[in-house]
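Q: Okay, next protein. This is Large ribosomal RNA subunit accumulation protein YceD from Candidatus Thiodiazotropha endoloripes. I've checked the sequence twice, so it should be correct. Can you predict the 3D structure?
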Amino acid sequence: MSKRFPDRLDPWRFADLGKEVSGELPVEAFVRLRDCLMQADGEVLFNLSFSRDEQRHARLDGNVRTELTLECQRCLGALRFPVERRFSVVFVQGLNEAERLPEDLDPCLVEEGVVDFRELIEDELLLALPQVPMHDTDVCQVPHEFVSDEELQVSEPEQQENPFAVLSALKKDRH
Ligand SMILES: [Zn+2]
């Protein structure tokens, strides 16, 4: 899929043209989101649809879809967290305009006439994150089990290999 769309776009122009922008971006492209993740893997799929409503507001209806790897706060293990989020915003140029909007419309403040759509997508992803990510209790592993499993996998081959390597090095020296 093409990744060539503008990072920053003029929302009023896009609304006038009824533009639709869709594509995918790697999770690791979202710097603020990355800080909340255990691992920045996978892709974010998005679809942004711009339009003018009856009041001539420039409006965006979007959806974002991805699966994020969070850290379970109970066992510190990886937790796969699917996100599918729909959102709608109305673009405004200042706080005055934002205050005049009906309450059911979510304002998006535009600075210098352009919107960074990655920031917009990232904001929505951050809003979708749970405050305290945790596995369901039936799949969550208690911390000591998780750590020992990992230690077994990492340290066992080393313990077997190292003495052997030392021994064979000694034998070579003697011959
Ligand atoms: Zn857990």
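A: Here is a summary of the prediction. The helical segments are 11-17, 31-34, 95-100, 117-128, 143-174. Confidence is low (pLDDT under 50) at residues 154-160.
Q: Noted. On to the next one.
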